[in-house]
Structures are given as structure tokens and as C-alpha cells.
């Protein structure tokens, strides 16, 4: 017993001594919903760990607070007509936290590492098309691609393509995820269990930044505890904020609500290979039968906007569709009758088993019952979902009829918003086209959009694709949820970006 | 006694082996493809295959088990599928916070439980007994989730006395250990009360009174010493349960312990961590059982000498 | 409110150490308070022994608990009367009125108590030394060391061998007799002026009982204590008491010197009680067993009905072949210890035991705890498998029987246990319990033709209940509605259900009050006469055995050391152990009291032997007609 109690008491006493707050430094605490998984962005697939990495690491490109592509470690670029060869001019006089200079060799080391399948990095697909990296000079690098890829800059803006110090990569090897060394505004201090601490990078290349001395990212899974931290000023920013707790932030004059559209699309994929969903009139009827405003109110307490195209408005090349499926039961019934289902039909809808998903599914169920469509709602645990939906080898074996789902295109580009979900060659298990939707016009447009880096051509391609998809309605387009977060009014320059990421480079505490 | 201990410890190994088979089998029978979960929601099929190879999940199950067991014997449980860190580090980092919290919660809960239990038993049927037992029943019935949030709201948000959550100073221990210990204290109070009432009926308690032992000593010496024997078992059991890390308390108070790690790893199908954690819990239970038996023997001379 | 004048007068009039006046004690029952002791008065003088006698429910134990106010902790309260006690300082206090907790300085100091159950009356978690020293430290203010020395002295006083080693032992390591000595040492450690002994020897074997009784008497003489002896055993009363208080239903019905009570009892209850007491030697000069000449007290009137002339039990059909023949029966249990359960020792419970039971005969197996008498019975019954030897029933070797034959055998041999509380299923009606053997054995009662099986069984149950002195309508009731004696009657009815030939009665009357015990013994004997039953009567009580048996087998350490006709064994015991056993029995006749104050010591030896250490078994040799004895030293060395 003594062996346990002594260190415990010692710990308690030591803790007391350290408990007094240090007023001199500017310390920011951010409350996160989950644990950070790793700090090697090349091997990350969750937004939260990406945000954490972004405090320390940077890529050639990045997104600004409005999801606009901006150059970071690259100053400019050129690309050939077929989008197979990109050349980047790199920023000079940038050093990693460990003093290693940032240069073309450092970029090559990182990109070669990411592109090599043998390294088994989760973000390998970002550079899967990379054939060769050529160091032209210290500050010029050329990327040669195996096939045309017009969205490369977007891929390079993805956190997965951020640049580690080559020296750190060599030193830490597989442990790099515990020892991130980048060029970003903050330097790594410690990461234990649920708490990441970073400190100001005095030699940051952007003058005057950062302004905060220490940033602590702390995982607080319970919503109530997280908001309590904000209320007691133990944290200055917390996210996500459950919509039912918005009032608590609004009621406190020290706090400020952040409410902005995200890039998370909510929809029900309809298996277009199965009756009755093989008839576009049925799919359109279902779209007309749902009151999108009510959806936002019921499922998101009003903190959601419309999904007015196949991709959310914050993604690049989004085009708002002119003919919206406005709530119209008469029209829905007429379309159903026309398709031969005057009395509706019965169907099963899958979806995740989280509270929010179930609430959404029940809403859809209720709405469709108005036109005689009787839905059985089947919530699936994530492992079961994988087995029943995503691992099915052949379309004819698919049991899914409807799938309540959501998608966040982490590159911020239309390509990743459409290709994995609606491309004719993207049926499970390869991608996530669970609507089993295949349309030649759409396929051609998606392929064209990625085959060039010419923004005008790409815009045209995605316009065509979005138009066709909207008409065919392989989904019930439900909405785009808003990002909700709470922050202290003293905190400025801290951004919650549409992709759910955090930007704290310019953060300051008044 | 020593021989007894050696025998008991030797007996642990086959138990652990059986547990390891169950743990491994059970974890691999969970629905869902861990490779896909690890690879992430927007990974390509190719990414998934890479992950699968990386984790050794493409091997036959028995090969995986053999590897698991071989490593486990050396205290090596592989790397977490999620963080890629050695599982031993992952668990090691979480173990002490849970242990400390458990010890603090157990100490106060046991003392409070004993006091309330004895107070109720010695005032059986009177108002003190009724109050004690109402408190105890509510302690069992009160959801620790709500209690935790209520306390945060009162002591942190409203009064500003204690930090809302986290780990580090003694202030951080107050609310989590109260929340965690409440159920235990309630169980202990009820258990102590019934054990105490039973012992108080024994002939030797009457003998003590007949000797002229004052009531205070009859209660705390003659009765409680004997009542402690069953109570020790109860304490051990409760301690074992708490050592697993309370999922609810650790979540509400952001306590970086084993309970939260388990939830995370189950959500993530982090097989390696789940396996190691379950093995650890089993081992903890076995060791606590052993300790309880030893304490039991110390408290109960009839076992000590046989 | 009592007058000061009255109190002063009492002081003048009473040279007594203790003077109980009009004591009434009540407990809270379901329907309000129940008075269990009602207006009881008696006195105890220094150096005097007063026995309070009565059966269960007479209020004698509650009276004893009231004297030190321990009854307050058991849920009772004194509702009237006074308990005047003269302390060592000569001051007199009324113990009935102050709060119970305020008397702690007096308990264990001026008045001490020894309880019935030595096995449970010592605290299992403290050492013997600590438990004795505790009282010394509390009352005499001695320090630990001095108190321990005092404890050692007390252990020597109660003649415990190797007292120094015992100080650090725990109660479970001691036998019952040793524990009772420890209890006495503890009680006497502060040299109380009054000792209350509540059935202090009831749970002990007779030889140990004799030791304890002599010890108490010796210490009493030494210390000049007053002693209150609570007991139901008239033998013990005759042995120890100067005066006797007889209690019945919470009231004192008679009081007098021990000689007067035994020779000229006045109250009908006292008469009835004495008539039921088995007295060793009561059948001296008679060949056959004789039923108790029982007086029955009519509950309402407290008038004893005159006894019918006791019939002689001439039931043995000596010419017939033996019903049961046991030859060289040996039953041993292995004692395994350690991780691998290796064989460490053996319990030689039964060693080469041979005897026969004739039709209509009662053979008694007598001996003290651990002598193997019960194991013998259980082995014959098939509840325990024999290590070797043969058992023949009705001429058939039971080992050769198939399962059908075994079942038939169980029908013909029935068992009656000591504890009638435990052997009846509390959730079944009495009728079902009695009918159960018939249903299990598919036994069809012989009855009037034309009855359905169910009706036949019901009639049979009614008939059996009537035979054992109950009423047919009792069949629909549950066991808890019956007293201990009635339950034992039910058990007997159940045993009779399948018309058995042999009944093994294992301490069947040991747990019953004397009057009930006598009734049950008479019932068994009556049934034997009516049905020609044979009994294997297993008992430790020599006086009961003398009453009931035709022949007696004395067992010691698993062997039969003496076997012969009852009269021969009781009047001319040959084996030293038999003599010792007989000498230890308290005789319920104060005029025959042995004032032999030699202290007896010694424990009953254990039948556990290490591997390879086989006991010597000597053959039984004839010493008279049908009378055999084993000529070896076993059990003879005292």
C-alpha cells in the first residue's frame, strides 16, 4: 500500500505548488472532443489531429480561414497543360524548429516518404500519382506525375502533405508522430495522454507572429465538462459545441458563439441499381418530400444550411443549382404515381448508430411516410457498417437500399467531394459510391476535372457534373451542418475553418 | 503462507493463458474490419490494404495469436494500431492516473462506508439508520454522470473553487474521486451494516459485553474486527472494478486513465490495445484476489493456520 | 418508585450476595410486549450454588441475562422488580434500574458469566491471551504485560496443559472442553463474587462435562463465589446445586434445597420433570429395558396425570436370524493437503467393527464425539462408503445388491437425525414430507382395496401421524408451526412410512428437552412393541441408553471396546473406558453426589493418524454370556 500512497501524496503536494497561474505569459487552452491520435500528418485521418499538427507543421500550400487555397512554403508554381508536371518555387530563409534549413531537398524527402507505398502511410493516396520528385535547385522542385492530376495544389494543401524536418524524420523514424518538428508558428513541448502542449516559435517566418506563448490542446470528451471549462476560463476555445448548449454560450457575456457553414454534406444515398430507386422520378419524389428547413431545425436545432448541389458551398467549384427540390408533397406524390408507386413502397435505411444519425434518420422516416414510403431504420455500429456496406465486393451483392450518410472533403476541392462518392468507377470497396450511381456525363466530367490544373477548365467540368447529378438525384440532398464552437471574447485571430480544422497562427489574447 | 503464495502465483499462469485465448478470440470476432477503420473514412481500398499488411492482419488468425502470445510473454503487446506507439507505453501512461484516482476514491469511500454502515447498524431502526440507508441507496442509484456534471456546475462554474477537469493537482482529485467513490461508499455502507448486524448477534459479542467491555470497544474492536473479514472481500472486489478505470468518471472529468483508453480503443478497434488492456484487467483482478486472500488470512486466524 | 424504607428493610433482612425480587422481563413481539420472565424472586448467598432449572421457554436463560442487564442488548427490557447486588465494597446497588451501559464497570468484575456454547462464545480473531487479559486490563487497570501474566495464571488455575503456549493461540485451535476452560478462566480473571453459568456443559461430552463441573466447584470453594447454574439437566443439578429454583413458563414454580426438590417435589411440573429425567442406574437389576413412568403436566392446570405402569420391553425375537450383521466394517477418510492434494493422514473413523442386530432388538452404539458411532450408522445406511468389511441385511450382503436392490434396502432401513429442524423441508407440508418416502420408493401402502393410490397414501399419512401422537389434520401444516418434539415425531412418522425393519436413530433425542425426550423415547419403544422394529440407537447419553436398549456397544476411537447385554454392561462394565464413561455421568440424585474433588483432565483423543500408523485392533473376547470386551490399552489409561 505504501508504495502506491507515497508517490501519490508526493504528486498531490507537488501539484499544489504548481497550481498558481502564471499571469505574465499568454497561455491559450483549447478543449477538444477527442484524443489526438498522432502528430505525423502523413499518417492521420482525423481532422482533430490534423489541426493539432497544423500548429507546428506546414505544407507548400494551405487554406486560409475561408477555405481559399493560399501558398505557404511555396511562393509560386507552374504547371504543364496536361497537369502532369508541376514546378514550385519555395520560400527562402525558413528554418525548422530544430534549426534545419527548409529547402527543396527537405520537400523531396517528405514527398518521397509519403508517396512510397512501402511506408504504409494513411495519406499515401494524396501523392499516389507522383512518379518522380526532382530537386532543380535549393529552392525549386519539380513534381512529375504518372497520370494527369489537376488538383495537386489542393492535395499539397492537405495537412497530410505537410513538411517534417528531414533531420527529425531521420532521428525519430517511426516515432516521428510523437516528435513533430516543422516550420509552423508553434514548437512541440509535450504530449501526454490527452494533453498536447506547444510553445511560441520565436523564429517564425511570418513577422510578428505568433502572439501566444503557450497553447494547450486538451481532450475533454464530455460536452458538459468542455463547456464548463470555457465558462470558468480554463479554456478559451472549445469545439464542437453541441447545439443544445448554444444558449449557455450566448447567455455569458464573456463568451462568443461561432456559427458558420462547414463542408460536411448530409444526404441519403439511394441505391440506383435497386428497385424502386432505379427510377429517377422516385429519387426526385423523395427529394421533394423532405422539408429541408425542418431538417435543419429538427436535427441541428437550426444550425445547418441547405445542400444546394452535390457538394457544399464551401468547396471549390461549387455551383448552386437553379432548380431546387423545394418541399412539395403534391409534386412528390405525383412523381411517385407516375413511376408506378401511387401508394408508396417500403424500404430499409441504414446509417450509423450515433444519436445524431438516428435523429436524422427518424426525421427522414417521418417525412417520407407523408407520401406513403414506409422506412425501416436500421442503425449500424461502425464495424457492422464496414462489413455490410463498404466491404461488399460486387454491386449485385449489395444489400443497402438507402444509406443516411455524411461526407467532408478534406482537400477542400470539388474533386474529393465528387469522385469518391459519385464516380461510376468508385463503387465499394474501392471508393464510397454507395448509390451505385453511374452516369457517363458525370464520369467524363469528373475525369476531365482532375486531368487539368487549368481552373477555367476544371470549373466547367465540375459545373457539368453537378448539374447532371442534381437532375439524376442519386441522393436525397438534406443539408450542410454548421460548425459550432464557443470562444472567449478575449481570443482573437483564432479560426474554425469550414473543414473543421483550427487555425491559430494569428491567435491572440487581449 | 509462503508456500501458499507460491502455489497461488503458479496457478495464475494457466488462468492468464485461457484468458489470452478468450481475449484474442473475442476481439477478433468483433464485427468490423480494423484495417478500414484504421485507414480512415476517406481512405482508398489501396490504403486499406496497406494498413492491413502493416498491422499483420493479412496473416492467418493462429499466426496472429502465436505472435501475440509470444510477445505478450515478454511484456510486449505490439504497437497501438491507432497511434503506432508501443501498447506498453500507451497503457503505462494511463495506468498511474487511474491507480491514484482509484486509491483516493477507495480510501474515502471505504472509510465513509464503514462509518455510515456501523452508525446505521448500531442505531438499527432509528432515524440515523434510515437516513444512512437512504443516503446509501441514493448513492447507488444516482448516476455518476449527472453527479459529475452537477458538481462541475456547482464547484467550478458557480463557485470557482475547483478546476472543472483534468489531472495534476490535489484539487483535480476532489470531484472525480467523490464521484467515483460514491457508489462504492454506498455499497460499503450497506454491506458493512448487514455484516455488522450479523456479527453483533454472535455469542462472542455477548461474551465481550459480559466481560464489561464498554459499548465503544464492543463496536469497534470485537464486532468490527470480525465484520472486516467479509468487508475485505468487498473492498477487493470494488477496487478491482475501479482499477479498470471508470469510463464515465474519466470521461466527465477528462481524467487521462485506462477507462477512457479502453473506450477509445474499442471505438477504434485498436485490437492490440484492447487485448493488452483486458489482459491487464484480468491480471489486476487476479492480483487483487491474491491480496484479498492474504489480507483475509491476516484478519482471520482460522485461515492463517490451516 | 420504590420506598426507601422498603429498600432499607431488605438490606437488613438479606445477608444475600444477590437478591432478585419480583423480576419481570419483556420482549417486543408482533402483538406488543411479551413477558418472558414474570415476577421471579430468589437469592444467592456468598459461596452458595443456586441452580435455575427449566426447559426451553421457561425463562431461565433470560433471567440469567437480566442479572447483568445483558438482556437489554438482546432486545429485552426489565419491566419490573429489583436486582439487588452487594458489591465487594459492601455497597448495595439495584442493577434493574440504571442504564445498561452504565454497568460495564461491574460486568466481568463483580459478576461474571460463562455461556453454553464454548465454540462460539470466544472471539475468533483475538488470541486466548488477549481475550482473558482484556477483562483484567479493563477492571484492574493493569498494563498489558501484567494482564498477560494474570491471564497465564488463570489458565493454570483452570488446569490447562501448557498454558504459556495457549496464550497466543486462537480459539479455533482448541477443543470445546478447552474453550470452556478458557471461558471460565476469563470469567474468573477478576475474581467476581458471583458467577453465572448458563448451561456451561450442555454442548460437551460427558467426560469433559464432569471435568468442567468439578473445576467450577473447586474454584468456587477456593474463591468463595456465589454461583448461579442455569441448566435443564437434572443430573447436573443433583451434582452441583445447594438450592434449586424451578422455572416453568416464565415463572418460578418451586424453590428449595436440592435434597428437598429431588425427594419431595411439590409442584406438579417439578414432579413431571423429575419423572422424565433418565437416571443412570434406574434399571439396576432389570434385564429388559423399560419405558419412562412418565407424568404428564396438563398445560392449563399444571396438574400431573398419574403414570401408567411402565411396560417392559420384551420384543427381541432371539430365535430368528439377525436382521443386520456387520462384520469387520472399516471406514476411513483421507486427509489431503497442499497444492497437489497429497495424502497427509487418515481419519480412522470406524475400525473393524462387528455386531449384529436381531429382529425386535435395540442395539445402542454409545461413545463420545468422534468415536465413530455416527459414521457406522451412515455407512450402514449407504450415506458413506465403507473402506472394507461386509454388511448383511436380512441375510443379503448389501455390497452385492444392484441399484434396484439398493433402493429396496433404503426402504427397509430408515434414518432419524438429531436435528428435527434441519431434516424437514420448511417449504413442504408435513403431509408431503411424510408421504415423500412412499412416493420416492413407489411404495404402495397396504390398505383397503378400491382406494386410489393417492387416497391410499393420504390415509397412510393420517395413520402414521396418529401413531406418533399427532393429528391427521397436521398433514396440511408446515414444519415451523410445530415444536421441536413434534417435529421429531414427524420425522419418526416419515421414517415409518415404508414399513421399515430397521431404524437408525442417530442422537434422535439429544436436542430435546428432557420431558419431550422421555416422550419420544417412550414412543420409539411403543412402536417397537407394536411393529417389531429393530433400532440401532446411536447416543452419547448413557442414561437414555440404559432405558432404551437391549444390548449396548461402547465405541472408542472407531472401535467397539465392549459389547453386551444392557444389564451386563451397565452393572458389570469390563472395559476401563466404559467405566470411565459411566463414572462421568452426573447422577440425578443429590444423595449419591460424589464429593470427589479430584480434578479430571485429558482430552478425547483424535482418530486422525498419519499414513502407515495403523491402529491396533484387538478382538472382542467373551467375558460373560453374550458379553464381550476388547482387551487392549486403548482408552484405558487414566
TrEMBL record, chain A:
All residue ranges annotated as the Solute-binding protein family domain in the record: 68-422
Gene Ontology process terms (BP): dipeptide transport
Keywords: Periplasm, Signal, Transport
InterPro entries: Peptide/Ni-bd (IPR030678), SBP_5 (IPR039424), SBP_5_dom (IPR000914)
GO MF term set: peptide transmembrane transporter activity
Keyword Coiled coil in annotation: no
Transmembrane portions of the chain: none
Signal peptide: 1-19
UniProt-listed Gene3D superfamilies: Dipeptide-binding Protein, Domain 1 (3.90.76.10), Dipeptide-binding Protein, Domain 3 (3.10.105.10), Periplasmic binding protein-like II (3.40.190.10)
Cell location: Periplasm
SUPFAM superfamilies tied to this protein: Periplasmic binding protein-like II
GO cellular component: ATP-binding cassette (ABC) transporter complex; outer membrane-bounded periplasmic space
Function text: Part of the ABC transporter complex GsiABCD involved in glutathione import. Binds glutathione.
Protein name: Glutathione-binding protein GsiB
Automatic annotation (TrEMBL), chain B:
InterPro entries per UniProt: BPD_transp_1_N, MetI-like, MetI-like_sf, Opp2B
SUPFAM superfamilies, per database record: MetI-like (SSF161098)
A single MF term (Gene Ontology): nickel cation transmembrane transporter activity
Keyword list, A-Z: Cell inner membrane, Cell membrane, Ion transport, Membrane, Nickel, Nickel transport, Transmembrane, Transmembrane helix, Transport
Domain ABC transmembrane type-1 span(s) in chain numbering: 95-292
Keyword Hydrolase found: no
Membrane protein topology class: Multi-pass membrane protein
PROSITE patterns: ABC_TM1 (PS50928)
GO CC entries: plasma membrane
Subcellular localization(s) per the UniProt record: Cell inner membrane; Cell membrane
Matches recorded under CDD domains: TM_PBP2
Record field: transmembrane: 12-30, 99-119, 131-152, 172-191, 231-258, 278-299
NCBIfam families assigned to the protein according to its UniProt record, in alphabetical order: Opp2B, PRK15081.1
Family in the record: Belongs to the binding-protein-dependent transport system permease family. OppBC subfamily.
Function: Part of the ABC transporter complex GsiABCD involved in glutathione import. Probably responsible for the translocation of the substrate across the membrane.
Protein's name according to its UniProt entry: Glutathione transport system permease protein GsiC
TrEMBL record, chain C:
Pfam family name, one: ABC_tran
Membrane topology: Peripheral membrane protein
Subcellular location: Cell inner membrane
Chief location category: membrane
Domain ABC transporter: 18-274, 324-582
Catalysis: reaction(s): glutathione(out) + ATP + H2O = glutathione(in) + ADP + phosphate + H(+)
Gene3D superfamilies named in the record: P-loop containing nucleotide triphosphate hydrolases
Single GO BP term: transmembrane transport
GO cellular component, one term: plasma membrane
Coiled-coil region: none
Entry EC number(s): 7.4.2.10
CDD domains registered for this protein in UniProt: ABC_NikE_OppD_transporters
One MF term in the entry's GO annotations: ATP hydrolysis activity
Keywords from the UniProt entry: ATP-binding, Cell inner membrane, Cell membrane, Hydrolase, Membrane, Nucleotide-binding, Repeat, Translocase, Transport
Summary of subunit composition and partner proteins: The complex is composed of two ATP-binding proteins (GsiA), two transmembrane proteins (GsiC and GsiD) and a solute-binding protein (GsiB).
Function: Part of the ABC transporter complex GsiABCD involved in glutathione import. Responsible for energy coupling to the transport system.
Family matches, as PANTHER family: GLUTATHIONE IMPORT ATP-BINDING PROTEIN GSIA (PTHR43776:SF15), TRANSPORT ATP-BINDING PROTEIN (PTHR43776)
Family: Belongs to the ABC transporter superfamily. Glutathione importer (TC 3.A.1.5.11) family.
Stated name of the protein: Glutathione import ATP-binding protein GsiA
Organism, as annotated: Azospirillum lipoferum
